[in-house]
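Fig. S4 source data, part A: sequence.
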Amino acid sequence: MSQSLRRCRNCAKPCSGLLVSYQLSLALSGRPSHMDRSSPDFIKPMLAESGEAFDSDKHLFEIKWDGIRAMAYVEQGVYRLMSRRGVDVTERYPEFEPLRSLPSGCVLDGEIVVLDADGKPSFRSVLSRAQARTKLRFRHLSQATAADFIAFDLLYLDYNELIRKPLRDRRESMLERIAPKLGEHMAVSDGVIGPGRSFFDESLARDLEGIVAKRLNSRYFPGKRSDAWIKVRKSSSALCAILGFVDKGDDFESLIIATEDDGELHCVGRVGTGFDAALREPLNDLLRDGRCDAPLVPCDEKGTWVMPGLYCVVRYLECTRDGIFREPVFEKLITD
């Protein structure tokens, strides 16, 4: 092997034999060649558990960006953007073209957001970007309502896996190797260590969604929900009338609910989470015993309607412009 290397160094023309010999030696030694290395096709993003605000010098507290989760994969000057569910969304965001200049073999976890005139993430705007379907529309929206990619974790660098390393080390690598190379419409998420409660209060004062607390010594858990990450979000609660339910045979799938606004009852959508096993059976009986032909108030939802008299308390993130509760969670049942 060494003789082959010496001959090639002294040769005036490129020697393909050198490349073959080099790759063969790597294969025999068990070391991967650069050409054999590649980024993972897809990594399921790590998920956070819900909790309350707290202080800790063992946690990093970051803003919870109100957008769409995405992973950026960069390899040999080519980049891919993958959604949380593994859908390739690269073409939808041409403004992220500078990602191709990042180090080859890196994988970033982050959030795609669209900022409003006040610099706050607008979920409605980012949703309109995600729902675009044509290349012409992608290009138009990238100029009319440009998105930003906020990176908050680094899972691979130079084709080396960082998933098992602690968050503290992953962030250090991201700040040193990735942050200086990010272009327009891209940034690394900032945060604080220690005062989580005041950081959360400040996020509410700025009308942001909330914060995420991340344990500094924790590894990354692909596709798993872990208490190493805790999301703390603003929320509101409302007393709701149960208009009906979506039936799935011997159980209900969700409740169709309405709440009062300016003295009138309006349908605010459906709630399908927050029910414990002990409640489902008696609630099913109440729903089925109270069935009727029409809802108490006009409603665009499709379902089985019930007579007035059933109420519940629902926690939700916000009420959309269309008057629908976003991310509703059932809290308790109230009956007349």
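Fig. S4 source data, part B ends here. Confidence is low (pLDDT under 50) at residues 1-34.
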